[in-house]
Specification:
Order of helices and strands: HHHHHEEHEHEHEEHHEHEEHE
Oligomer: single chain
Largest sheet: 8 strands, mixed
Helix content: 25-40%
Strand content: 15-25%
Number of strands: 10
Distance between the termini: 62 Å
CATH topology of the largest domain: Rossmann fold
Radius of gyration: 22 Å
Structural class: alpha/beta
Length: about 325
């Protein structure tokens, strides 16, 4: 929908830079908010002339749908401040939302067992995040839960570099951890968890490429990395083919119900419960699953966690064999 000349003129009267922000912000109110953030981003460390030039250049970029987070350089993600750079996917509010809910439910359902009860076995959760990008999911979970050797994997060297920067940028949350998050550059399609000396995980998360190419804005389509955006079933086939054998639970973001149904159809009713999580906009956002009987000795009640996290699929009906 085109912006009316009247709206453009009204915006110009408030501030000559506001019309540059209208194509992306769509309203004067949103444009005023963005301009305020952009101005605050270029503080008194600059001369007045340089500051005005940087603000104008930033507004011209926004006119061309350049992502605001790349201009500001960061994005809040829960209690963390996540650095954002071109070439790495920007964290979304939808991801932040399900992470918060998962953390809350996991903390509520940690079973109180002493080391004596567990025979002195270390019972911290073992956790891996695939397609980690900025590291936002892993870093928030690691800052909020009792984890052991949390690990993030991504094929992109830019992503791994930025994830490590984000670890250092938020390092105050991990000073008391026995194990800081670790990020490794690997291709999840070439990894074989059983041959890489990896432990059995309590939880695997991923925000894999899943968006069909007609489902996003110009800002995303033009400027964010296609490697991190586009996909269909590839990563869900990888999940059920490799990673489900190596974990007691998983949460994967997705773009459509058929991706969740694929995961459900591939996993055994006898071993797994599978469900979907909807965000606050009522869009299906994640497929998740947990083993009905844990392999790990970690003190967490996955059934209680995931029964509240989303909606479980009904059990698949058994087909009768012809006699």
């Amino acid at each position: 929908m085109r912006i009316s000349p009247k709206t453009v003129w009204k915006a110009f009267q408030k501030d000559p830079l506001l019309p540059l922000l209208l194509p992306e912000c769509r309203t004067i109110e949103n444009s005023i908010t963005e301009l305020k953030w952009i101005k605050e981003n270029f503080n008194n460390n600059y001369t007045k002339k340089d500051r005005l030039n940087l603000i104008k250049k930033s507004c011209l970029k926004r006119q061309k749908h350049y992502p605001l987070q790349y201009i500001l350089g960061d994005q809040p993600f829960g209690k963390l401040d996540i650095l954002c750079r071109p070439g790495v996917l920007i964290p979304r509010w939808e991801t932040e939302e399900w992470c918060h809910e998962l953390i809350e439910l996991m903390n509520e359902n940690v079973m109180q067992k002493s080391n004596e009860t567990m025979g002195g076995i270390e019972t911290k959760l073992r956790y891996i995040d695939l397609c980690t990008g900025t590291g936002c999911i892993l870093l928030l979970l690691a800052a909020s839960l009792n984890l052991k050797d949390p690990m993030g994997i991504d094929i992109s060297s830019k992503a791994i570099s930025l994830a490590n920067q984000n670890l250092q940028h938020n390092v105050s949350y991990y000073k008391n951890s026995l194990s800081q998050p670790k990020f490794l550059q690997k291709d999840v399609f070439e990894m074989d968890p059983t041959k890489e000396n990896l432990p059995h995980f309590d939880l695997v998360t991923s925000n894999p490429p899943y968006i069909h190419d007609h489902l996003h804005s110009k800002s995303v389509k033009i400027y964010e990395p296609k490697l991190a955006l586009y996909g269909n079933l590839e990563f869900y086939k990888n999940l059920v083919g490799k990673w489900c054998n190596q974990t007691d639970s998983f949460v994967y973001e997705l773009g459509s119900i058929h991706q969740a149904q694929y995961v459900r159809d591939c996993l055994s009713n006898e071993e797994w419960d599978v469900g979907v999580y909807k965000d606050s906009a009522n869009h299906i956002r994640c497929v998740y699953g947990y083993r009905k009987k844990n392999i790990s000795v970690a003190n967490i009640h996955w059934k209680k966690v995931f029964e509240k996290f989303g909606t479980l699929f009904a059990a698949k009906k058994k087909t009768k064999k012809n006699t």
